[in-house]
Specification:
heterodimer, A: about 0% strand, B: mainly alpha, about 0% strand, elongated
């Protein structure tokens, strides 16, 4: 990641240049979305959390201290917001509160609707949902985002040893689950 | 946390290789150009939603302000009720209205249940009530309390945030 360019964009934005913020969003929105998408397994929730993260960035970029990498900072916010979303969803499910706002949405709204290998993607997403949240998170960061254990540790605040163990278990389970489906 | 040994590291590499082909389709999907439209609009969509949210919040009810108003209102009422001056500060007009209406209801009830009209002497009753109110002093009551009893009442009021 080009941290010099990032810091320059942040400074420009803090000086009132909205275009600089758009550049940051264009640069990071896909990473935010795909992390949340992998964690939440549907477009609507991922879209909601992605927008939430962008709004947090817009409102809190003035608190960024320029000591850490912007990429790490954004990923930390994304990870926290996604995990909070999962917790809230669990509570809603406990009290049988459904998200009616999505009931009227057609599947065409989903980003993958026109993708030719839709079934295969759904199989992978379903397998991801079957593993524990901690394992899923490290699997997505390591396997899909290509992060190192050190980077993941900086974002999640967990030890590298623990992360390696989680990743190992995640890999084994995902492989088993995908083999079962075949 | 158990450390990963060399065998497990080898197993990780092997599993990654096995999975690579299977999840390759997901990587392709992530990088698909079909998604560009969504991501190109994301900034505009989010900023529009943020603007809308801010506009709505100006006109919408803010629970924090609501609670603050409720607190001020209840505090004001508490001050009226817990006036520790020499006299009870019940508003005499509302007191009269309340008592009169009850009295009239009583009169109407008696008239409907018994033959003939009932003309109750409520003027005399009200005068005695007013005299009692004027002479009654809460501070006298408080003075009669022991120190520990007073402390208990004070702490109770404080805990309930009335004070």
């Amino acid at each position: 990641m080009d941290s010099v360019e990032d810091k320059s964009l942040v400074k420009e934005f803090l000086n009132g240049n909205e275009i600089a913020f758009k550049k940051l969003v264009d640069k990071y929105s896909q990473k935010i979305y795909w992390h949340t998408r992998g964690m939440l397994n549907n477009h609507f929730d991922a879209d909601e959390v992605t927008q939430e993260v962008i709004i947090v960035l817009y409102e809190k970029l003035n608190t960024f201290n320029f000591e850490s990498n912007l990429y790490t900072w954004i990923y930390r916010i994304t990870s926290t917001r996604t995990l909070n979303f999962i917790r809230k969803k669990k509570v809603k499910e406990l009290f049988s509160i459904s998200d009616e706002k999505y009931n009227n949405l057609e599947s065409e709204s989903d980003i993958q609707y026109n993708y030719e290998k839709k079934d295969e993607i759904e199989r992978i997403e379903k397998a991801l949902q079957k593993i524990p949240t901690k394992q899923r998170e490290v699997f997505i960061m390591k396997n899909f985002e290509g992060m190192t254990y050190k980077e993941i540790s900086e974002i999640t605040g967990k030890s590298q040893v623990g992360l390696k163990s989680n990743y190992f278990h995640a890999l084994k389970k995902i492989t088993e689950l995908l083999d079962e489906e075949n | 946390m158990k450390k990963i040994n060399n065998n497990e590291l080898e197993e990780i590499e092997l599993l990654e290789k096995q999975l690579s082909a299977k999840i390759g389709v997901y990587r392709d999907f992530k990088n698909s150009k079909n998604n560009e439209r969504y991501f190109n609009n994301l900034h505009y969509k989010t900023m529009s939603n943020l603007g809308e949210k801010k506009n709505n919040s100006i006109f919408s009810f803010n629970p924090a302000i609501g609670y603050a108003m409720l607190f001020i209102l209840s505090f004001t009422i508490s001050l009226q009720l817990f006036d520790f001056s020499d006299e009870v500060t019940l508003n005499n007009e509302s007191f009269l209205f309340s008592e009169t209406s009850l009295w009239l209801e009583e009169e109407a009830y008696l008239s409907s249940n018994f033959d003939g009209d009932f003309d109750l002497d409520f003027t005399n009753y009200l005068n005695s009530e007013l005299n009692y109110s004027n002479n009654f002093s809460l501070s006298d009551e408080l003075n009669q309390l022991s120190e520990s009893e007073f402390d208990e009442i004070y702490e109770n009021l404080k805990n309930k945030k009335i004070l």
